[in-house]
Design a protein that fits this description.
400 residues; alpha/beta; 11 strands; 48% helix; 18% strand; disordered C terminus
């Protein structure tokens, strides 16, 4: 096993001659490559090393969460070097097969979707407030310069979407997967819309309803605890931010048909979603411990199913590095409040979420994660602007 580890280290070094890293083994042995390494993987037992070779990132995630591994130095640098991916080229298939019963059990049907969402989003608003901004926005921000705060980026993201949708006081807006209500509130306050947001998280539903009532907007907007498959009505505009990743591959066609049904003829919609370079890009550790029932679709399959449902794609914008920067803000806030988070949960939870946030950021910077805003219409709307100028026009309006 140690010999295999040395061979693996040499392979990484051959693939990237500039790579610099250290392996520290349970017996005190040190394997070092490159000069001035920024990251060290501490492997505390031969059993853990075996699981790295047999289970890949799933084994790494489990061992790191339980304390069988330590990373000294830069965790994202370890992930950037692709060290974990080198442990076993065959591990990806094996780990997915091993978790097949779990996948089948947590498939996002009507029965399981609420349980899957509760697993991640019902961890209390207090927890999320310790690393998100004041709006509790849990999705990619939109930074326009180096000095933007996290809150700036989230307000700018909402406004960027609002411009793309060309929101006006006459519009009705439906927000599928509305989170804590940020986009809905922004749209009502700044653009005068009326509308409905839905979520399956009791935590988000309670917070969103309370926020809407506190702002005196209850006569115009509401948040419902409801599955997207149960939603009825016709709306001028549609938006979904960071929810499509929970639909599941099997249900993408039904989701797109529902979007078609919710929009009025000629209506405009925007889907803000993480994508993978290829289909089936979601890793087993994240599915098992962070997002049960989740699936990261490729851009091609998303657009294909939109077309099959009768939706016409107008514009696609990639925001990959915007999400990396957003995640790095979350990581900084998370580490700044680490003592409070540990009081709410425990050391295992802290390690699990540290890995989740850092691996997400590293994947956007160096790996297969992508994120897109896909603008579309129901049918052909020939009265829309034919350039992107209206999306980027600078406005000096005050935030709420």
């Amino acid at each position: 096993m140690k010999r295999a580890l040395r061979e693996l280290a040499a392979a990484i070094n051959r693939a990237d001659p500039e790579a610099a890293f250290v392996f520290k083994l349970w017996n005190g042995e040190v394997i070092e490559y490159g000069s001035r390494p920024k990251t060290t993987l501490v492997i505390k037992s031969s059993r853990v090393l075996g699981e790295l070779f047999s289970k890949g990132f799933l084994g790494f995630g489990e061992a790191y969460t339980e304390g069988g591994l330590e990373v000294e130095g830069d965790l994202q640098e370890l992930l950037r070097l692709g060290i974990i991916g080198h442990f076993s080229k065959k591990a990806l298939l094996r780990q997915h097969l091993r978790l097949l019963p779990f996948y089948l059990k947590t498939m996002p049907t009507m029965k399981w979707s609420r349980k899957n969402i509760a697993h991640h989003y019902d961890l209390t608003a207090e927890f999320y407030s310790l690393f998100l901004d004041e709006t509790l926005t849990y999705s990619c921000g939109y930074f326009t310069n180096e000095n933007d705060s996290l809150a700036d980026a989230q307000h700018q993201k909402y406004e960027h979407i609002a411009r793309k949708l060309m929101l006006s006081p006459e519009d009705t807006l439906v927000d599928v997967g509305c989170g804590w209500g940020g986009m809905l509130v922004h749209s009502a306050l700044k653009h005068g819309i009326s509308g409905v947001g839905i979520t399956l998280s009791s935590n988000q539903h309670q917070h969103g309803c309370r926020k809407i009532e506190d702002l005196g907007l209850s006569d115009r907007i509401e948040v419902r605890l409801q599955d997207y498959r149960q939603l009825a009505g016709k709306f001028d505009k549609f938006v979904s931010i960071g929810m499509f990743e929970h639909v599941g591959k099997r249900f993408i066609p039904a989701y797109m048909r529902q979007v078609f049904e919710l929009l009025k003829e000629g209506g405009i919609g925007l889907l803000h979603t993480i994508s993978g370079e290829l289909e089936y890009a979601t890793d087993a550790w994240t599915l098992r411990y962070i997002f049960p029932g989740g699936y990261i679709p490729s851009l091609s399959e998303t657009i294909r199913e939109m077309g099959r449902a009768g939706l016409c794609v107008l514009d696609v914008e990639g925001l990959r590095m915007q999400y990396a920067r957003t995640l790095d803000h979350w990581i900084a806030n998370f580490e700044r409040n680490i003592d409070k988070i540990q009081e709410l949960f425990d050391e295992r939870f802290v390690r699990m979420w540290r890995l989740y946030l850092n691996s997400s950021s590293a994947s956007f910077k160096y790996g297969a994660n992508r994120i897109y805003q896909i603008l579309f219409t129901k049918g052909l709307n020939n009265h829309l602007p034919i350039t992107r100028e209206y999306m980027y026009k600078i406005r000096n309006e005050n935030r709420f």
